[in-house]
Each structure stands twice: as C-alpha cells, then as structure tokens.
Amino acid sequence: MASPSYPEFLLPAFPRHVLEQPDVNVAVLDTRFRLLWVNPAWDEFALANNGRAGVREYPTYLEAIQGPLRAHFTAALEHALGSGEVFEQDYECSSPDVLRQFHMRVLPFASQGLVVEHTLVASSQHEDGEAAIERHFTNDDGLIVQCSNCRRVRRLGITETWAWVPAWVSRSHPRTSHGLCSPCTRFYWGKGRRQ
Amino acid sequence: MTTPPMPPVDALRILVVEDDANSREALAMLLSDAGHIVEECANGRVALSKLSAGDYDVLLTDLVMPGMSGLELVNAARASAPRLRCVIISGQAPIEDAPVLWLGKPLDVDALLAVLVR
Questions:
Q1: Strands, sheet with A113-125, edge to edge from the N-terminal-most edge strand
Q2: Domain residue spans in chain B?
Q3: Could you give the angle at which helices B44-53 and B70-80 cross, rounded to 10 degrees?
Q4: Which of B54, B51, B61, B5 is nearest to B32 (CA)?
C-alpha cells in the first residue's frame, strides 16, 4: 500500500524533513482529527509498544487514547484548532520496563489541520519495571496521591508537579489516596484555597 | 468590637478528616459557607482525639490515609459515639456492606449537602 502523501497545507513552512526527526513522533491531522500523515518515528514507536503503524490503522488520532484522557485531549485539540493557540503539555507514557516523560505540542494550521508532536524528554530503563515507576510517586506514608478529578498523580519533589501515569488512570493503584491537584482545586472550587 | 455571626439553628458540628490539604480545606470552606461548624484534621489518630474531646454531629472522612483508614476510624469512633453520623468520601469503589454512607470523589457537593440535611 502506498504511503500517504505529505499534506500540502504544511508547505512551505514545514518541509517534510523538518517533521521527520528521529526523536519526535509526529502526526498531522485534519480538522476532524483524522490522521493524514505520520512520520517514521511515530510508526516505529507504535510498533515497539504493541500499537499499530500507519495512518489507516486508526479512524482518528483520538482512537489511540484510552479512557478518561480521551475527553481531555478532544477538548485540547478542539481548542487549539478553534483558537489558533498552541497547546503544550508534559505527560508520562511509561511501559512496565521504561519510565518515559514526553512533551506534547499541538500546532494549529487555521482551518486545515493540526501538527501534533510528541517529544521524548526523559527515559530510563528499570530492571524492576512498574515498581521503579512507583518510587517516583510513593510518598513517605507509602501512598500514591492522585487527583480525583483529572487522575494525575503527584510526583515527589520540591515543587508540586502532577503527571499522568496511564496504568493508574482507569485503574487506581491499590495504595492511592485521592485528593485534588492545585489546578483542579482552583478551577472546580471557584474561590481557591483559603489563606 | 464586632460579634461573630451566630451559626444557624440547624448548623451541624462536623469533623473533616482528609490527608490531602487541597481537598480538606476546600471541603471545610464549603461546609463553613453552608453555615456548619467545621473542624478539620489530616489523619485518624488526631481525629479520634478530637472526637473524644468534642461533641460532633457528623464525621466526614477520607478512606485511604496514612496510618488509620477511614473505615477503621469510623469503627473506632462509633465504639464510643454510636449515634455519630459518619460519611466516607473516597475515590475508591465502595466496600460491600460497609456500615457507613459512602460518597465518591470527585465530590458531588449537592449530594453531600443533601445528606447533611437529612
């Protein structure tokens, strides 16, 4: 089967070689979020992680996103397309053996479509798989703190950071304490935190 | 000198037990705004101390907390105060046959306020 042609609306700003970087997974979407084109890194990553390569394997980009995250990314893509604003987000996408952090960027092209980039920011191999991931999120009390609204989990560290761990979005870790992250607290409780 | 406003006649004295500061403070603020008298703490040990020293109508507790779980707290609290109304607020699925009212997270505020006026 012939590979899909490179979307013309990206030219001349984005010649093909710009989006064929080996370390960035790129998908080009139309205004209904159907996959028009993906770069070789996208296919390689999909095949290496039990996914399916090629733009015809998924009806839309959102098909590859499971569970409650799909609504979030649907809203993000719609907002980027409608407003013309770039959407950016860091997220966790780890396998049982590898801890990975990605940066996602969505570039809107007026009424023609979107370029979605997923850049690997950090990756480390762990011999003991998910247990190693847990160490990044388990507090001194042995609990993992998860936002009950957006399902992100709190990463240990000096600053307050929250990340999505796909395995714990639809299935909470057995030792999860549910709370609220600061953005959700501010957004859903209106008045913000009491001082 | 100004006199603090009197709480409404049907105000309840509520103890909120929640280890997550964001959730605890937001819940306490909500209940205070609704006219209830609210105290808060972050774990079951402190909660039992407060319960033994005070007279509360309602215990609102998280389930998964450091040390004592919310269910253990409810059982311990009821041993000394059988008439205490207890509500567990948790992101976990309800435990089958748990002898306590169970509300999910994220919290449905209207459902909570409805429970309190019963």
A1: A35-38, A24-29, A113-125, A98-109, A87-92
A2: 13-116
A3: 20
A4: B5
Positions in chain A short of pLDDT 50: 1-2, 191-195
Interface mutation target, options A139, A189, A191, A193, chain B, most CBs of B under 10 Å: A189
pTM for this model (two decimals) = 0.59
Residue A53 in contact with residue A19, Cβ under 8 Å? no
Q: Return the pLDDT at A175.
A: 87
Burial (0-12, 13-18, 19+ Cβ within 10 Å), A82: exposed
Cβ atoms of B74 and B62 within 8 Å: the answer is: no
Give A14-38 pLDDT, tens digit per residue: 888 888 877 789 999 999 999 999 9
Q: Distance (Å) from the C-alpha of residue A87 to the closest C-alpha of chain B?
A: 26
Q: Angle at Cα A69 formed by Cα A68 and Cα A75, nearest 5°?
A: 110
Distance between alpha carbon A152 and the CA centroid of its chain, in Å?
Answer: 12
CA B85 to chain centre: 9
**In angstroms, rounded to a whole number, what is the distance separating the alpha carbons of residues A175 and A144?**
6
List alpha helices for chain A, DSSP H: 40-48, 69-83, 130-135, 182-188
Q: Spelled out in words, what is the top-level CATH class assigned to the domain B13-116?
A: alpha beta
Below-50 pLDDT ranges, chain B: none
Q: Does the bond joining A7 to the residue before it have cis omega, within 30 degrees of 0?
A: no
pLDDT at A185: 79
CB contact under 8 A, A182 and B22: yes
CB contact under 8 Å between A177 and B65, yes or no, is yes
